[in-house]
């Protein structure tokens, strides 16, 4: 009985390490997240903020901020979702997105975006 427990545990560990969730995003997910981010940027420029927020959030669900590799990825979709929510006056959700942005990006946060998120949080969030 004692031999089965370690073997089962080792099998579990091996299978867990092979899990796609642990391996990181697939190239397909990165491509889709990149396209969603680009689409959302266009929507922001057209003042279609609700649609943009939805697409930024979809991108983050596929690939976390700055997780896309091999392509120019300038804007954090989490920050941009917060900014879109700010534009439409949804302070509660903007607060959540800006807080998530600061948490997720840490020292990778661009100074102007970090400052904007900090200022918004201080003036609008409880």
Care to describe what's here?
The protein has 126 residues and is mainly alpha-helical. The protein has one domain (25-124): Tetratricopeptide repeat domain (Serine Threonine Protein Phosphatase 5, Tetratricopeptide repeat). The protein has helices at residues 4-17, 20-23, 27-45, 49-62, 77-87, 91-105, 111-124. Helix 3 (27-45) packs antiparallel against helix 4, helix 5 runs antiparallel to helix 6 and helix 6 (91-105) crosses helix 7. The chain is globular and about 40 Å long. Mean pLDDT is 84; it is low at 1-20.
Shape: globular
Oligomer: single chain
> Superfamily at the CATH H level?
Tetratricopeptide repeat domain
Query: Any idea how many domains?
Result: 1
Number of strands: 0
Order of helices and strands: HHHHHHH
Question: Major β-sheet, in short?
Answer: none
Q: What is the annotated CATH architecture?
A: Alpha Horseshoe
CATH class: Mainly Alpha
Share of helix, binned = over 70%
> In DSSP terms, counting alpha (H) and pi (I) runs of 4 or more, how many helices?
7
CATH names the topology as Serine Threonine Protein Phosphatase 5, Tetratricopeptide repeat
Name the poorly predicted regions: 1-20
Average pLDDT rating? 84
Give the terminus-to-terminus CA distance. 55 Å
Q: What is the rounded Rg?
A: 19 Å
Given helix and strand content, the structural type is: mainly alpha
